[in-house]
């Protein structure tokens, strides 16, 4: 396959060729999306392996994690917080419901909508996997003091506002 | 499916129940892995859609991006820098080679190994997609000054050292 649209449609991009630095000028080790993707690839992969040994997938863990702090969410918002496609999230909720770790309940304000709640059993399971997650988190921040962590977190919150599609 | 190993094997985790804060105490909006996964989910998803319109997938784009700044890599290191499974990366290299955008060449120091090089045509294609990537990058950092960006990048470099499996 060739890319005639890339090879010939130069108008689109030539106009901003000179607007900023090249990737070579920034350098891979200073290019934030590279650093963030590589960090989260390593973190998520390592945690996925640890969770598999505990019998949980990443979408199921994230569903329990989110509901443990903000319960009774609609599926759409739960998928955003769990950073999962809605279809993936629905399958995770199905599986967790079958195991008695979450339950669906009609939304009292909207008869067509359902909300998802964590059960006591679900809280117990999450409490037992949380130390594994916290260890991965603390390994990530080893040697970084509270002030640097706070400044870093504040910048992340700004980046999220810049890139997210949702208003939450 | 139930999780007897979670429900019964409490010894593993009870010992460090009290070692640190709970997720509820940290708060989802201050939990760095949540913030970073959500930021990169939005960034990667938006860029993936933009690249699809230019006829490129994320692994192919990342392969060209990496080789444009550090050419002649072995597949294994290229996969790490492109943050892709080696099988995914190999398919991307196959496709790019078929399009004349990269070429494989035997490693002069190791007859069983090959290295991957970007071609002139590959550089031309990457130069044309780079403004799209740079726009996504600049959107991410809108309103964040150079000092904050530099401090943030320095912290990211430390986090990468903390979580990566490789020594590069």
Structural description of this entry:
The structure is a homodimer of 168-residue chains. In chain A, strand 2 (102-107) and strand 3 form a beta hairpin. A three-stranded antiparallel sheet of chain A has the order 1-3-2. Mean pLDDT of chain A is 91; it is low at 1-15. Chain A has nine helices and three strands. In chain A, helix 5 packs across helix 8 (120-140) and helix 6 (75-81) packs across helix 7. The first copy, chain A, is mainly alpha-helical and 168 residues long. Chain A has helices at 4-8, 11-14, 23-26, 32-53, 58-69, 75-81, 86-98, 120-140, 146-163; strands spanning 73-74, 102-107, 110-118. The longest helix of chain A is centred in the first third of the chain and has 22 residues, at 32-53. Chain A has a single domain (28-163), classed as Orthogonal Bundle (Arc Repressor Mutant, subunit A), CATH 1.10.10. Chains A and B meet through helix 1, helix 4, helix 5, helix 8 and helix 9 of A and helix 1, helix 4, helix 5, helix 8 and helix 9 of B.
């Amino acid at each position: 396959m060739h890319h005639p649209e890339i090879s010939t449609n130069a108008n689109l991009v030539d106009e901003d060729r000179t607007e900023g630095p090249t990737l070579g000028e920034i350098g891979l080790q200073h290019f934030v999306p590279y650093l963030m993707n590589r960090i989260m690839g390593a973190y998520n992969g390592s945690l996925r392996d640890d969770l598999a040994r505990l019998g949980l997938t990443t979408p199921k863990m994230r569903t329990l994690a989110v509901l443990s702090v903000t319960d009774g969410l609609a599926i759409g918002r739960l998928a955003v917080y769990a950073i999962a496609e809605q279809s993936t999230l629905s399958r995770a909720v199905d599986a967790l419901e079958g195991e008695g770790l979450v339950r669906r309940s009609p939304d009292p304000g909207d008869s067509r909508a359902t909300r998802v709640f964590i059960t006591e059993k679900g809280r117990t399971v999450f409490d037992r996997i949380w130390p594994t997650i916290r260890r991965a988190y603390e390994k990530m921040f080893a040697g970084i003091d509270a002030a640097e962590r706070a400044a870093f977190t504040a910048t992340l919150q700004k980046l999220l506002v810049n890139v997210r599609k949702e208003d939450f």
